[in-house]
Each structure stands twice: as structure tokens, then as C-alpha cells.
Amino acid sequence: MTEADVVAAVEAALSGEAGAFEGAFHGGRNGDSLIVTMHTSPLRGADGAVSGGMGVIADVTERHRFLDRIDRLAFTDLVTGLPNRTALDCRLQEALGLAALNTHKVALAVLNIDRFRHVYDTRGGHAADRLLVAVGTRLAQHVGENDTVARAGGDEFFVLLPDVCGLDDVVAVSDRIASGFRTAVLVDGEPIHVQLSMGVALSPDDAVDADELVRDATVAMRRAKRDGGGVRRLYDRAMDAQFTERLALESELHRALHNGELTVHYQPQVRGSQAAVVGVEALVRWQHPERGLLAPAEFIPLAEDPGLILPMGEWIIEAACRQVKAWHDAGLAKLRLAVNLSARQVGDDALPETIARIVEASGLEAEYLEIEITESAVMDNADLARSNVGKLKRLGVRLALDDFGTGYSSLSLLSSLPIHTVKIDRSFVAGMLEHSRDMTIVTSVIALGHRLGLNVVAEGVETREQFEVLRGNGCDEMQGYLFGRPLPAKDCETLLRRHRLLP
Ligand code: C2E
Ligand code: MG
Ligand code: MG
């Protein structure tokens, strides 16, 4: 507020009109600048003529600061200081409006940090927050000054490119981002290699409105995740169809669990030396009302939601324990039951209690239950998985490392986890008679397993020749179509009563 403003306000009052001004005023008590409002109004005598003026000056600096702060909070992500989802939506709307008037395009990328949960679990929430800050900063360094990096919540970031000519521009930016993350980010002085899954959608090509563009980019990001992470995927229509189908299956799966559409099949496991049955592996199936019998690969990956996979996993183990207990009672004694756990189950802190409860309720002795876990499930959940595995061991349950050779094939896992069994993945068994490398892996894992005192099981044994070679190499147990396919309980029972399963 200048002197001229004050004079104008006073003059307005004296000429019979009210005046109001708001502005910065320099020269507060400590020489700082204030924001003040000034309201003036005329004073009139009994005859109604203006006899003077009155002015009220108020210091509204604090109120302004407060409103600014609220404004900033509403549009800022508190963890990273980046624009938040609301701010992104505003900028996206604006960008789409401008693009519609011109001929350029708008690109939106959704980025997700792979294995963020792992950082959270192993280093705690504060370190995870600092990782988010570091990732946000790194992203901002690799985009243009008109582009927006925003955090949408969780470990999800958006990059908005409001003005691109086409895909080439998008690829160039995503290349810059990818190369920007080739070096580790530092969190509390420790380097963390960050891998991002990125999904990109373009407007007007893929979507015209903001919600659609966000959705399409998210679909593409999920695709990148499903393709193993660390990659970028551009949205396309086919993806959309798959996504819709996936959503439909996912909701049907919730229903399936309650409608009794899931069933457990059992595949015999035989002792190598005599081909006598020593156990069964429980393998889930979904009897879908329209699609027929679905294999686990077609629906287990859909059940990412812990609200689905945990009760589903619990149901499978419970059903299988009850079945095998019934077989024990019917005289098929000493039969061992192997069940598979998904990564989510391995990382569930209630897992040991759940298993203890099921074992107790079914009456199956714990030593007959073997829990199969994969290396990647352990690696995904590190500390929690280790503590869970330790607790399971104390329950007296056996542990098997499934699909060995396909994941990390980590010798340290083999030696540090309290496992009883290692299962050689069927891809090696399938290839071992033709490829000497596969044969070397199979024989080495058998030898290594034995040196570590483990029970070695070969999966996917389909031919007599494979059986002979594995037996010749001292493989303890085998499982595969040669001895029996996974079968419904009733059919499996018939097979089990045959005792020796070689044709
Ligand atoms: P897995 O645990 O390695 O199970 C062995 C898979 O190999 C089964 O496939 C089985 O049907 C198949 N198989 C067995 N013998 C042969 C053979 O001689 N030749 C060939 N080509 N295949 C053979 P399936 O039942 O489709 O299961 C696939 C995977 O799904 C399983 O691999 C396991 O990781 C997962 N899975 C199965 N049931 C469950 C479950 O109840 N819970 C969870 N979390 N995962 C499950
Ligand atoms: Mg298995
Ligand atoms: Mg396996």
C-alpha cells in the first residue's frame, strides 16, 4: 500500500464513498513488511452532509500466511514436497485444455518403485519415506522444466509431460529417467538401487479426458509390473481388454472362494528307490462355471489382494490337511502332504498362528505337513519370511524350497534357511537328457542337497528314462506325470492304494 493508496482512500471517504484497500505495507515495527487492509467510510452530520472520514487499518499478515499454508498443504505431498494428486489433476486438466486448442499431445507416465515393500519391511517407514524423497528428487532432475513430477501416494509417482509431439518425445524422457536411476540413490548414506516400473499413455491417442488418461497409464504400469518390473510399457487397447478381463476374474475369484468353486487336486510323490508313494502335493484348481477347470497360473497371480489370497491360501491348506488326515485314518499311513505358499502368505505375520491353528484343527501331525516356498517369495519378504520360517520349524512342520534353480538359486538361502527338502525345477528335468548343462545342474543339485543333508525331489518326471537317470544319481524322491497327474481326492486315493506307481 503506497501513500497514494492512503490518500485515495481518505479522499473517497471525504467525498462520501466507502473505500477498501489491501496490500503490502513496508515499514512495520521491525522494518518488516506487513499485509494490511484499510477500510474507510465517510462520517456524516445530522443533515447528512459529509463532515469527516473514518479509517480502520488491520494487520492481516498472519491470516495471509495461514491461508497460503493451507493452500500449499492442499496441493503438496507432505512426504516429498512434490505436487500431490490434487495438484496433478489441476495441471493435467489445464494441459489437456491447452492441447485441445493446439496440435500437441499430452503424455502421462505412472511410475512405481519395484520391491518398495521390501525397503519398508527391512529398513522401516522412515527410511522408506526418505527413499520416496530421493526418488522424487531424482525424477525431477530428469524431466523438463515445464513437466510435472507428482507423488500420488504410496510408492507411485506421476510424470506429466504437457507438451509433446509424439511417442519419440516420451521415449526420450523415459530414457533419461531410466538412465538417471542407473546409479543408486542414497538413503541414510546407504546406496539403494531403485528399479521403476513405468506405464505411459498419450492424449488424445489413448484418452481424451484426465481420468481416462490416468487409468490407461496405470493399466500400462501394472503391465510393466507383471512383466517382471524395471521396464516401461506403453498403453494399448489390447492391454485394456486384458485388464478388464482380469478385473472380472478377480471379482469372480472372491465369489469362487465362498461358492465352493475351488478344489484341491493331489499329485503323488514317490521314493526314487522303489517308486513307492511317500506323499502328495496339494495343487489348487478353480472349477469355473463357464471357463472350466483353471490351473493356478491362471488365477493365483490375480489374487494379489491380501484380502483374497490369505483366506484362499488358508482354505486350501485346511482342505488338504483334512483330506490327508482322512487318508491316514483310512490306513494310508505315513503319507506326507506338501502345500504351496504364495509370497503374500510367506510375508504374512499371522502365518505361523494360521498354520498352527489348521494343524491343530485337522488333527494331522505337524511332521506330515511340508510347506513349499520359493526363493523369490523369501527374497520378497526377507526378514518376515525368515522369522516365519523359523516359527514354522518350531511347530514341527517341514519346509521345502520349490522350483529350485529358477529363481536366485542362492546357496546362502539353501544353507541358512532351516529346510528339509529342495525341489529341482521341472525345466531341468525336462531338458536333462538332451542338454548336458541341465544334466549337470540336476546332478549337482542332488549332490549339493545331499551334502547339506537335504531330501532332494525332482519335479516333472515324465519318462521312464528320466526316472532311471534320476534314480541312478541318487535322487531321493520324484513327482511327475509318469507316476500320476494331479487328481481329485477320490481318483488320487485309487492311485494311492496301488502303492507302487510305475507303469
Ligand atoms: P509347483 O508347486 O512347482 O507345482 C508343480 C506343477 O507342475 C503343477 O502345476 C503340476 O501340475 C505340474 N506338474 C507335475 N508333474 C508334471 C509333469 O510331469 N510334467 C509337467 N509338464 N508338469 C507337471 P500346477 O498345478 O499348474 O501348479 C503350478 C504352480 O502353481 C505350482 O507349481 C505352485 O507354484 C502354484 N500352486 C499350485 N497350487 C497352489 C496353491 O494351493 N497355493 C499356491 N500359493 N500356489 C499354488
Ligand atoms: Mg510346489
Ligand atoms: Mg515346483
Return the CATH topology of the largest domain: TIM Barrel
| CATH level-1 class of the largest domain | Alpha Beta
Bound molecules: ligand C2E, magnesium ion
* Helix content estimate: 40-55%
Largest β-sheet summary: 8 strands, mixed, barrel
Number of domains: 3
Q: Hey, roughly how much beta strand do the residues contain?
A: 15-25%
Mean pLDDT score = 90
Q: How do the strands of the widest beta sheet line up side by side?
A: 11-12-14-15-16-17-18-19
The CATH superfamily name of the largest domain is: EAL domain
CATH architectural label of the largest domain: Alpha-Beta Barrel
Shape: elongated
Going by helix content, strand content and strand pairing, the class is: alpha/beta
**Total count of strands:** 20
What is the C-alpha radius of gyration, as a whole number of Å?
A: 33 Å
Low-confidence stretches: none
How far is it from the N-terminal to the C-terminal residue, by CA?
100 Å
What would a concise description of this structure say?
The chain has about 500 residues and is of the alpha/beta class.
Task: Provide an overview of this structure.
With 503 residues, this protein is an alpha/beta fold. The protein is 46% helix and 25% strand. It contains 18 helices and 20 strands. The strands form four sheets. An eight-stranded mixed β-barrel has the order 11-12-14-15-16-17-18-19, surrounded by five helices. A hairpin with a 5-residue loop joins strand 2 (34-44) and strand 3. Helix 4 packs across helix 5 (125-141) and helix 12 (351-362) packs across helix 13 (375-395). The chain is elongated. The termini are far apart. Residues 267, 282-284, 295-297, 300, 313, 316, 340-342, 372, 402-403, 426, 459-462, 479-481, 486 line the site of ligand C2E.
